[in-house]
Specification:
By secondary structure, the chain is of the alpha/beta class. Helix content is about 20%, strand content about 30%. Helix 2 links the parallel strand 4 and strand 5. The longest helix is centred in the middle third of the chain and has 12 residues. This is Glucose-1-phosphate adenylyltransferase.
Amino acid sequence: MAKEIIAMLLAGGQGSRLYALTQNLAKPAVPFGGKYRIIDFPLSNCINSGIDTVGVLTQYQPLVLNEYIGNGQPWDLDRVHGGVHVLPPYQQAAGSDWYKGTANAIYQNISFIERYDPKYVIILSGDQICKQDYSDFLRFHKEKGAEFSVAVMEVPWDEASRFGLMVADENDKITEFQEKPEHPKSNLASMGIYIFNWDVLKKYLEEDEADPRSENDFGNNIIPNLLRDGRQMYAYHFSGYWKDVGTISSLWEANMEVLDPEHSGINLFDDDWKIYSRNSGMTGHKIAAGAIVENSMITDGCRIQGTVKHSVLYSGVKVEDGAVVEDAVVMGGCVIKSGAVVRHCIIAEKAVIGENAVVGAAPEGAEKGVATIGPGVYIGDGAKVGPNAMVRENVEGGEEVC
């Protein structure tokens, strides 16, 4: 049975700028917003938009991500015909194996796409926080008679040179593409979300694969080739929440924005566009008598005896009596022991902060450093970790790490 549109979700990113957080974890599997992982957002967008067939292309450290996706049931993607399919690279008769680039990743899965004989294919990124109605994007693509459409957002002109930019006319038709230019002609930044007519995409993927000089990349190769040939290319303006959480500071900022949905634009409490996730299976949280909790997200299984202010606590976090957690992101299974102070930082899963230890500090002036504690790390009693530190190994009691 043919599908009008299927999604191909690029989820093989290493996320090297997240350092300790992605040392043994694919970036799309990084926890976000208390009870989610980054990949929950594109998967939820798909099912909310009526797209019920999704190929998830994995590569770097895929174990946790594969287990998390499972059969797709949390996102209503456990379908007999369609549903979610994990697509790792594999050895083929032609000899290729690892995905060499974004375009090559799709090329290696042409046979999967053709099983569903779609008219359109939407290419998604597995490492962004975004709530987007892809059905509206598809409507735009059809109305324009497009062969290729890209979702774009206006960014400040002084930041435009950091992005791939689309130059478009008054009818949104793309006339030029600039990849991180020194002198930008546009501030329409590509979100890395594309809709192709499948016959057009297949043709350009095959031509790209046959070119030994190609980097096999959408931004560097496929899009310029479409422009060269005068294809019908359009820019779809998106005005909702979108954030590339590719750095420690941007991941911390996005988690903090979850606590202020009225101003930040990201509302995880919206019943009309739910973000679905796998259930932790833990009991409800408990806040003890005398504990202080202010403007924070406290999720399943948390036990709070100390003070938590303007923070996001993931499943199973324990904050003992006298501990202070402020402006912090504390991931699942962490323990903040009695008297410890945790501020302006990210604590990865199953880390332990010892008694009277200090991690991070409130920023002073223009300083915005975010301390980061890696997964499973133990910070000893009385240890001190500075506001810009990245800790991947245990720290002895009383030791200082800057």
